[in-house]
Amino acid sequence: MSARYWALLLAALVTLGAGGTARPTPADTYQALQLYTEAMTIIHDHYVDELPWDKIVQDGIRGAVQGLDADSTVLEASPRDGHATAATSGDVGLVLTRRDGGLTVIATQDGMPAQTAGIRSGDSVVTLDGESVAALAPDAAAKRLQGRPGSEAKLTVTRSGWAEPKPFTLTRAKPAPNTASSRSLGAGVLYVRMPRLDEAGAADLARLLADKPAEQATGLVLDLRNTVSGRIDTVPAIASLFLDPGRVVAHVEGRTPGLPRDLTTVAAATRWRRPVAVLVSRGTSSAAEVLAGALQDAHRAVIVGGTTFGDASTQSSVRLADGETLSLTTARYVTPDHHPITGHGVVPDVVAQAPVTATADSELELAFEVVKAAGIIERGAGGGGTTPVEAAVK
């Protein structure tokens, strides 16, 4: 195929992709495409090895996407993407994303084999059952990790500080319950673990808060460590349990129809007015980060733990004519005070990063003390308000 063909094709793509937004003049577009075509033609005609046009253009697209952000990518067509069947009810409990050209662990799910084996947020998966996963989409990798309970998945994993990758053999298990749970920490402090933020999680949290008599409540520890599952559009309903109606919980940036826009709280039947500490970790991502950032900016909660993963964005996928998939970031979420989350994470008010063991959880213990202190200050101040929560960490 000629260089002119590819130039015309790229021009058509630019024209189709620019609908609804301010776009460059035809002269600007033509000049840019002319430069691209010139470079591609030189490569095609003069590179030491003969290259087909489709490879040159595909590599050019990959290079353009690679320069955008960590989440946008071009994924090769995989004949095994749909190999999982309804009979596969086992999993290993890994939540993955793409970072630096490979698959990175966002979090491990509570009580699942990956967590038990010691895999943690920030690790990179190199191979799965002996095959490289460098060009594999996270959802395709997730399907390959599913299988019959009791069957094995073999991974090699790298970690910052390791001299070389390490092998892991994980025995698939039935997924653990993904619902909110609670218990009393004593002194009137309620502990709620939320492994997932969605409509069911919002309803569970509202019920758990409503079940705690106001006269017995002194504070809440909301555990969002390793919480990555869920939907960002459910965050306003959860934040409404703690904030007045009409408060902005996130600004949504983007250029697709309907953006930019704000996510705001609504009137809620249940409203928690006591001090709150939110536990976060490197494995806290997406909707959980948006919630933590909203409560932090509103001075409604003290954030305790480690800096979160930093991935609050939306990717849209488009299947290209050659079978590859273009995954492109089309929306990004920032906190009410316009603090970026993606690439930065939510930085806690109180930094506490210690391993959780079978007998000790020092991060939880610290969050408990923070909430107790906030409750004492609140009662000494003679009422509610946000200042006592802030004062608890000063």
What would you say this structure looks like, in words?
The structure is a single chain. With 394 residues, this protein is an alpha/beta fold. It folds into 3 domains: 3-67; 94-171, Roll (Pdz3 Domain), CATH 2.30.42; 181-313 and 331-391, 2-enoyl-CoA Hydratase, Chain A, domain 1 (Alpha-Beta Complex), CATH 3.90.226.10. 29% of the residues lie in helices and 24% in strands. The chain has 10 helices and 19 strands. It has helices at 3-17, 26-46, 53-66, 113-117, 138-145, 199-210, 235-239, 287-297, 362-381, 387-391; strands spanning 73-75, 94-99, 102-108, 124-128, 131-132, 152-158, 166-171, 181-186, 189-193, 196-197, 219-223, 229-230, 248-253, 261-264, 276-280, 302-305, 313-319, 325-334, 350-351. The strands form 4 sheets. Strands 2, 3, 4, 5, 6 and 7 form a 6-stranded antiparallel beta sheet that branches. A 6-stranded mixed beta sheet has the order 8-9-11-15-16-19, sandwiched between helices. Helix 1 packs antiparallel against helix 2. It is globular. The N and C termini lie far apart (67 Å). 36% of the residues are buried.
